[in-house]
Amino acid sequence: MTTPLIDPFERAIKYLRISVTDRCDFRCVYCMAENMTFLPKAELLTLEELDRMCTAFIRMGVEKLRITGGEPLVRKGIMTFFEAMGRHLETGALKELTFTTNGSQLARFARPLYDAGVRRVNVSLDTLDEEKFARVTRWGRLPQVLDGIRAAQDAGLRVKINAVALRDFNEDELFTLTEWCARNDIDLTWIEVMPMGDIGNEDRVGQYWSLRDLRARLESRYTVVDTPERTGGPARYARLEETGQRIGFITPLSHNFCESCNRVRLTCTGQLFMCLGQEDMADLRAPLRNNPADDTALETAIRAAIDRKPKGHDFDYSRQRPDGQVSRHMSHTGG
Ligand code: SAM
Ligand code: SF4
């Protein structure tokens, strides 16, 4: 291993999220416009390039990879990539290989993913109501996702649900979702909606449901006990005393936790974003493609990028408009 990656604020960078495609088989209202244009395929890193890129980061101290998108499981040949990353799990250099999915393809992929060394998966699910699910994802079907979740559990994967807290949409499902997760032995994390990318005519500020409010409502029925668990990200965790289940809160808006951030994000075109909520990025595709047999230039570019990692993001809705907005979509950077 080479010298580990440490940013200017003494944060060790051990976690890389990789968006392997900007494409998706859903069109969630807070994530994409209905008529999204996707990148031409030639712009994307090939599977071999993704492998080289991740391997370089692992050499530089990254211990956790999260594969995301767009929808990672719609990327052609993606299993080859997961299987290839399994070799880093075997050497112990990589501690965890995981992914975030909308669940639509899980029934097909759960077992091979387990065989490749994946043990945990985050599935995004904002509602358990079929009609509302169709409305929020525009193109999704709830039964297919529920089948996928069952298949993941049957294959031995630990499932966590990520739900975006949406005002006037899933406020009334706070308890239903909590109880469903408790019954199925699934952890649940709530996310505040972030101002990322043009989403057509949808209203950002109108979508925003603060997790402070959500938590207060949860406390009207359950005893919510904070736990000291930290993952180096914006999530904070609590346990519901009555059910014993874990609840996560990702609060980039109402409370940000940038001071302990340990992660960077690679887009499917090889741009490295040092912060989800800032526009600054470093192009890693050029040093990679221009030097097919040598990673020196790539490693130099990675170190230079980490030296520019900002202290934090500037998302803010308090002035009744989505301040700190970034132009790219979550599906490009990888949520
Ligand atoms: N397609 C996969 C999925 O939906 O899980 C992976 C990519 S998706 C961009 C990753 C996560 O970002 C999902 O949990 C999604 O709900 C969340 N997300 C997308 N747009 C968001 C936004 N504007 N604010 C907050 N979360 C968002
Ligand atoms: Fe696709 Fe995930 Fe974005 Fe929904 S949140 S449109 S599933 S990338």
Could you please describe the fold and organization of this structure?
It is a single chain. The chain is an alpha/beta fold and 335 residues long. A 12-stranded mixed sheet has the order 7-8-9-6-5-4-3-2-1-10-11-12. The chain has 11 helices and 12 strands. Helices cover 30% and strands 18% of the residues. It has helices spanning 47-59, 78-91, 106-115, 130-137, 142-155, 174-183, 204-207, 211-219, 285-289, 296-306, 330-333, and strands spanning 15-19, 64-68, 96-101, 120-124, 158-165, 187-192, 224-226, 235-240, 246-250, 263-266, 271-273, 281-283. It has a single domain (15-333), classed as Alpha-Beta Barrel (TIM Barrel). Strand 1, helix 1 (47-59) and strand 2 form a beta-alpha-beta unit. The mean pLDDT is 90. Residues 24, 26-28, 31-32, 69-71, 102, 124, 331 line the site of iron/sulfur cluster.
What sequence of helices (H) and strands (E) makes up the elements?
EHEHEHEHHEHEHHEEEEEEHHH
Rg (CA only): 19 Å
Number of strands: 12
Termini separation (Å)?
A: 28 Å
Q: Which CATH architecture?
A: Alpha-Beta Barrel
Primary descriptors:
single chain, 335 residues, alpha/beta, TIM Barrel, twelve-stranded mixed β-sheet, 11 helices, binds S-adenosylmethionine, binds iron/sulfur cluster
Question: What's this, in brief?
Answer:
The chain is built from eleven helices and twelve strands. It has 335 residues and is α/β, with parallel strands linked by helices.
